[in-house]
Amino acid sequence: MTKRLMPMLAALVLAILIAGPYVGLPAHLQSLLYVIFFWVSLATSWNLLSGYSGYFSFGHGAFFGLGMYGMATFATKLNLSFFPSVLLSGLVAAALALVIGALVFRLKSIRGESFALITLAVTFVLSTLIVNTPIDGGPGVYLMGVSTPAIGPTAASSFYYLGLGMAALCVFSAYVLFHSKMGLGLLAIHDDEDVAEVNGVPTFALKMAAFALSSFLAGMMGSIHALYVSYVTVSETFNINVPLTVVLMSILGGARHWAGPTLGAILITLLLNAFTDGSSALVGRVVIGLILTLSVLLMPNGIWGSLSARLRGKKVQIKGDPLSEQSHADPRGRDLLSERTAELAIKGVTPVGTKVVLEVKGLTKQFFAIKALGGIDLKLYEGEILGLLGPNGSGKSTFINVVTGHFSASSGEIQLLGRDVSHLSAHEIRKSGISRTYQIPRPFNGLTVLQNVVLSAQYGGSGASESQATEQALQWLEFTGLSDKAADLPDALNLHQRKFLELARALAARPQVLLLDEVLSGLTPSEIDLAVQTIRLIRQRGTSIVFVEHVMSAVMALSDRLVVLDQGVVIASGAPKEVMNDPHVVRAYLGDKVEGE
Amino acid sequence: MPSANLLFQALASGLFMGALYGLIGLGLGLGWGILKQINLSHFAWVFLSAYLTYELKTRFGIDPLLCLLILLPVFALLGVLLQAVLAKFSITPFNSLMATFGLTVSVEAFIQLVWSADFRRMNSHYDELKFRLFGVIVTYSEALTMLLSLVCCFAVWWVLYKTDIGKALRASAEDPDIARAFGINASKLSLALSGACAALACCAGVCVALTFTLAPSQIFAWIGVIFAVVMMGKLASAWAPLVAGLVIGVSESMTMALIAPTWAPLVSFTLLILILLMRRSHD
Known about the structure:
Low-confidence stretches of chain B: none
Strand content of chain A: 5-15%
Low-confidence stretches of chain A: 316-336, 340-348
Strand content of chain B: under 5%
Shape of chain A: elongated
Number of helices of chain A: 24
Strand order of the largest sheet of chain B: 1-2
Structural class of chain B: mainly alpha
Radius of gyration of chain A: 29 Å
Distance between the termini of chain A: 67 Å
Structural class of chain A: alpha/beta
Number of strands of chain B: 2
CATH class of chain B: Mainly Alpha
Strand order of the largest sheet of chain A: 8-9-10-5-11-12
Oligomer: heterodimer
Distance between the termini of chain B: 47 Å
Shape of chain B: globular
Number of domains of chain B: 1
Largest sheet of chain B: 2 strands, antiparallel
Helix content of chain A: 55-70%
């Protein structure tokens, strides 16, 4: 409902704002509104990268300032007219963002505060360069001579409309992005970037695009603002004021929502304007500071975040007693499964094929001095369930991490259906048909259960449209018995459900090969039974499975073949019963007589 | 090419500047590394302390070092109170930045309300007394700043590495939950640490009052370079901020002497960018 309501409301507000100057909106209100539009534009554009993806930039002032000086340079020194200057200023800002992004977005060490700091440092480097070169040279640049296009009935309304145009453009971009596949990917990066990449999200490309768009808009706003203030200086442009204010506005409003920064910008600008003269302005600032502190403490997710959390809370309450719901869940799930297994029993179990789906040759992985994988050879046949065993630290998890591209292999080859995938990035490997689950479930905590699976269907598989992806995701939720949890956040799930969410998310990419990392650990015996049946069903659908597990009963029941790792090498492989009696395997688990204490 | 004497003088002023950077960064880095708070109000405390020192000296003629003794417990209490409030909320590092930013804005406005936006310079005999060291003129103010910075770093190092409290603090910094499971009273430690950080800020404030002209807006002017100092070193370390501060201070003063004062920020921030880019992640 809100999805339809919000755009209509926005269109109404826009219409009123456009009509304003023509129906006698006083000039001082027009300039107050310009200031609001200005901050709405800057805060919303900042939010496109930082709010959605969690990469908090403290360098928004750099892009805004580049826009200011872009206008100062293009319009006064190169004598370009207004609109080309605005556009070029935006492009220059976007170009800087792409250069920074290319340098930092591939580095795992630059996340969180490192990113904030590096963007802040860029701001100061830029300001030093500008003040020491002919772009400014020290005294600042006057823009009195540049003509602004006359828009609207009065002289003052030009900037009013330019500001309104920018604000509308920024909010519109934020809205579209928020509801797009790209927006979902950015939100997933916010929650867990590594998992997003493994789930098929091209994280680098998304961050670059969002950063460029964000800076482009900030640069354009800056270029318009340069004419508004008509005198540009380095100290007024590249200070800490712009980045901190936009961050604050977005946090106050709610950075995970497209409308959050708008809300924050309006509130803070009005607050700052409420106290304008002399000492009352200072008292006002004391009060504003305290209000900000309190609102951040009391509403850490911003006004919008708290609001939607409250709405969600109400919905859950209406659903009724969570306990009774839980007690229903299990038998229903089992009924569903027993129906399906009955169906399968008629068809009979398909035998393991002879076609090799996944072939790993001489795979090694070195972490500094430690050899985690020492040359592994392994074949997975079509429709096979291959149990991968080994004591703790034997390299099972590293194997999964390397095969899915989270770590790059030190040497060796990984072939999926004859195609070498060892040099692909994680999201490309996911797309080509290898999915995994995590031993400790890592859902995207800010997305609903349904969105978690939709994301995987959209990014992991073969480019499903949004409605197709949603439909598929709902099917996978039904398959894993999570249908009635679709609208919940992952926090509301228990361990068993979280593990099944992992499964649903992995399956939504329609993988050829599924790597299961201890899906059964921590589950109760009845939950294990359910999971074992589910895994059989997955195989039945044509997916080959590598199954890392410590629950031996399940391993023996499910596996067609076993491979045992110890200290990064394969020490045994073959039929389950033979392998378990292999003296090497017994020694790996229980130790030598001499070693054993 | 400037004379050798001028270069020495620049080196010396860079070292003193760096010592002050290190002293301010020390408290900020401790809170960041152990409490996981990016405490912007640290800068507010520094300047509040500087203004109070100015007031006590100018109005009552109290020696700045005596001021330090008077102010230390006041600021320690302030730090404890702040932590007592923040501990009531589970707060992410970024939200701590936001919350303390609000507080800093309030303190800045408060300072402006009391002392106005005019520049204030404290006159003290520490500025007039000078001595010569290897041909370089050093004021007592500068020497005192260096000394206080070294003493504070040593004290922090001693507490962190030579006492049980330090062991507990380092354990909490590494993994707060596990530390708690081993019987470390994290909330009490946090209160003490926050108090200590504010006390360090107070100490830095006295140094700022000794050597700088004060203005309320200066609070925000220091943020960039101090962040650089804190991030260049390891978080929650005793000596790293001082070393980083000295590197930045000297590189700035050398740039000022050899090229032009306006180029100074370029060196420190380029250095910071390079260090961040080259720092390896753990995989």
